């Protein structure tokens, strides 16, 4: 099974501006973007051989300087995503219960017992 850990930037309502900035400064290319009104629900930027995910913060996670970078654990296997998520919530804090989203059949956000915030993401499209 394929497993990736991808940086995920959570922005305080200015994700669209950040995307434009990274396009200009880092020559980033938008591989995918899903909007919700004027807010970015989910975007993937290709930067060289790497990728970064970016979105505006969801209401379940209050903005605080320092918490805007998460690690997104990405797998094409829903069962693996669910197993990882349930392991991380032991002694951790759930921010978003594992659920289906327009961009992922199994997606959840949790801070583990060490204070690291993870987004667990089931990837159905290589560009997400």
UniProtKB/TrEMBL annotation:
<protein>
    <submittedName>
        <fullName>VOC family protein</fullName>
    </submittedName>
</protein>
<dbReference type="InterPro" id="IPR029068">
    <property type="entry name" value="Glyas_Bleomycin-R_OHBP_Dase"/>
</dbReference>
<dbReference type="InterPro" id="IPR028973">
    <property type="entry name" value="PhnB-like"/>
</dbReference>
<dbReference type="Pfam" id="PF06983">
    <property type="entry name" value="3-dmu-9_3-mt"/>
</dbReference>
<feature type="domain" description="PhnB-like">
    <location>
        <begin position="5"/>
        <end position="120"/>
    </location>
</feature>
């Amino acid at each position: 099974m394929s497993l990736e850990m991808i940086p995920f930037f959570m922005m305080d309502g200015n994700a669209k501006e950040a995307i434009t900035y990274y396009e200009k400064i880092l020559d980033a290319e938008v591989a995918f973007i899903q909007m919700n009104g004027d807010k970015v629900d989910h975007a993937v930027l290709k930067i060289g051989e790497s990728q970064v995910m970016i979105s505006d913060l969801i209401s379940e996670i209050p903005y605080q300087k320092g918490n805007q970078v998460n690690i997104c654990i990405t797998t094409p296997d829903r069962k693996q995503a669910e197993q990882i998520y349930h392991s991380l919530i032991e002694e951790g804090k759930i921010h978003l219960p594992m659920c289906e989203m327009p961009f992922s059949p199994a997606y959840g956000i949790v801070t583990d017992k060490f204070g690291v915030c993870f987004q667990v993401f089931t990837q159905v499209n290589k560009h997400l």
